[in-house]
Design brief:
41% of the residues lie in helices and 16% in strands. By secondary structure, it is an alpha/beta fold. The strands form 2 sheets. The chain has an 8-stranded parallel beta sheet with strand order 3-4-5-6-7-8-9-10. The chain has a two-stranded antiparallel sheet with strand order 1-2. Helix 5 links the parallel strand 6 and strand 7.
């Protein structure tokens, strides 16, 4: 698995990560105590770690933080870049710090590599939220700060609210078939060296059958999903985080991290799906 620097954090992580959002029913049942398919999900996360994936993303709302903790088991903590997210109703200072500490306990760790605001909340001043984030950094519990589902304007506001820290990452919906971030946010992230974590990197299961994609897949001996993930990972600041739900899928996804598209293949995909 190839590694690259996560934004300008100085940390090198796997080009392909793992996401642990499953579906609304999982979230509802996980918090209700019925964890359907939990063992398979733990196995999938373990398979990714064994395959060299070091970037793992979760969130307090997902109900999957305990699964990540179980999957990590005896893995060396400093070899996993562990990221989670705080829900939008926990963005006041004390609420955020309380949520952070709960996530630490669920994840079985003493610190987080990345803590992200899951969604913006216009009722809570971003300066208050970012001040709480910086306190966590100052306390040695948190290494890096990120946001998710923010507009470019909101990203800039979050950055300007961090006098002592960098905004290290942005997490957004990005794939061959959903490319709205290319208009303004991706160029901004590239210029400022902010990591862009791409969720739904396979089009939320709706990657279309296409002659160009199929041709590259066939000629390279790769699956269509591996080509789509490679297209994202070839971008300097982008880290796709496909869902880790089945061991076989995770192993296939990890295999997208050991090759590169040619310039022509990359350009063909750029034009075809634009």
């Amino acid at each position: 698995m190839k590694l690259k620097e996560f934004g300008k954090t100085g940390s090198k992580v796997s080009e392909i990560g793992m996401g642990t959002y499953y579906d609304p029913l999982w979230i509802a049942t996980a918090f209700g105590g019925w964890k359907r398919g939990a063992a398979a999900k733990v196995g999938a996360i373990k398979a990714g770690l064994d395959a060299g994936i070091t970037l793992v993303d979760t969130a307090e709302i997902y109900g999957s933080e305990p699964l990540v903790a179980k999957a990590m088991g005896e893995a060396k903590r400093d070899e996993v870049f562990l990221a989670t997210k705080v829900w939008s109703n926990h963005l006041h200072r004390d609420d955020l710090i309380n949520s952070f500490d709960k996530s630490l306990r669920r994840l079985g760790t003493s610190y987080l590599d990345l803590y992200q605001v899951h969604f913006p909340n216009r009722r809570v001043p971003i300066k208050e939220t970012m001040a709480a984030m910086e306190k966590l950094v100052g306390d040695g519990k948190l290494r890096h700060i990120g946001v998710s589902n923010f507009s470019l304007e909101q990203i800039k506001e979050a950055r300007s609210s961090l006098p002592k820290s960098e905004l290290s990452s942005v997490q957004l919906d990005y794939s061959l078939v959903h490319r709205s971030v290319e208009g303004d946010i991706l160029p901004y992230c590239e210029e400022e060296k902010i990591a862009l974590m791409a969720y739904y990197p396979l089009g939320h299961g709706k990657l279309p059958s296409d002659p160009k994609l199929d041709s590259i897949s066939s000629s390279r001996g790769k699956t269509r999903a591996q080509v789509a993930l490679r297209w994202l990972a070839d971008k300097a600041t982008v880290f796709p985080i496909p869902r880790a739900s089945k061991e076989s899928h995770v192993r296939d996804n990890a295999a997208a991290g050991d090759w590169e598209l040619s310039d022509k293949e990359r350009a063909d995909l750029d034009l075809k799906f634009r």
